[in-house]
Design a protein that fits this description.
The chain has about 230 residues and is an alpha+beta fold. The chain contains five helices and eleven strands, in the order αβββαβββαβββαβαβ. The protein has two domains: about 90 residues, Gcn5-related N-acetyltransferase (GNAT) (Aminopeptidase), CATH 3.40.630; about 130 residues, 3-Layer(aba) Sandwich (Aminopeptidase). It has an eleven-stranded mixed sheet, with helices on both faces. The longest helix is centred in the C-terminal third of the chain and has 15 residues.
Length: about 230
């Protein structure tokens, strides 16, 4: 398979990823693709026509929910309930200089850490993270007295563009620079592999966007995300 390497592939990131690097995981076909439930609710469409909507619905069981992100957000039929509509800012770091990694004791997270990772995500809401999301890349974290205080890792992979994802810090530990240190580790790992770091943040999360800008990320695009549940 020829892997997309053009930056233009980032214009529809979920679709591009599920059509190339993560095609082996994708459910669906040329009209709609999604991650399996245990990996992520993310899905992508190459267009928002009726055929695409029907193809997406065929991938979603009653009671299940998916997030459609990118330029093609469908008008779903009445048997869907909209759970959330947000704007997403896509950021890219074209600067190849390494980031500071701080002096925090960082560990690579593994299967045994999933329960703690899910608990931290539930508390901080950095974005979708499920039981097998950890299999999409390498995740690192900071623990203190056994408690997971912060984490960050990798998710989507589009050509040579790799997504920083799952960045979160326990409320009790914010302000200590843990997120910056972990993003530094993740970004530097990408740079050593010849990858270009990207990430996605909610448009209204100005604090996070400002932090990423200080780390050399720049805004590249903005698009909507629709999170909806099939009810019938």
């Amino acid at each position: 398979m020829t892997t997309l390497v053009s930056e233009a592939a980032l214009d529809n990131p979920v679709w591009s990823c599920l059509s190339t690097r993560h095609a082996h995981l994708a459910q669906g076909d040329g009209l709609a693709r999604r991650y399996p439930f245990a990996f992520s609710p993310l899905s992508g469409l190459p267009a928002a026509g009726q055929d695409n909507i029907e193809a997406l619905q065929a991938l979603v069981e009653i009671g299940d929910a998916v997030a459609v992100a990118g330029p093609h957000i469908p008008e779903l039929p009445p048997n869907w309930e909209t759970l959330q509509r947000i704007g997403v800012v896509q950021m890219i770091r074209r600067d190849t200089s390494p980031l500071a990694e701080g002096d925090a004791e960082v560990t690579v997270l593994a299967t045994a850490d999933i329960a703690d990772m899910l608990a931290l995500v539930e508390l901080t809401h950095p974005g979708p993270f499920r039981d097998r999301t950890i299999e999409l890349g390498t995740f690192v974290g900071v623990r203190q007295r056994g408690r997971l205080l912060a984490m960050a890792g990798e998710r989507m992979w589009i050509g040579n563009h790799r997504e920083v994802s799952g960045v979160c810090t326990h409320p009790d530990s914010q302000g200590r620079g843990l997120a910056r240190a972990l993003v530094g580790r993740v970004v530097n790992r990408m740079l050593r592999s010849g990858q270009v770091p990207i990430l996605h943040a909610e448009s209204v999360n100005e604090r996070a966007i400002a932090m990423y800008e200080r780390l050399g990320f720049v805004r590249r695009a903005e698009f909507p995300l629709l999170y909806a549940k099939r009810t019938a």
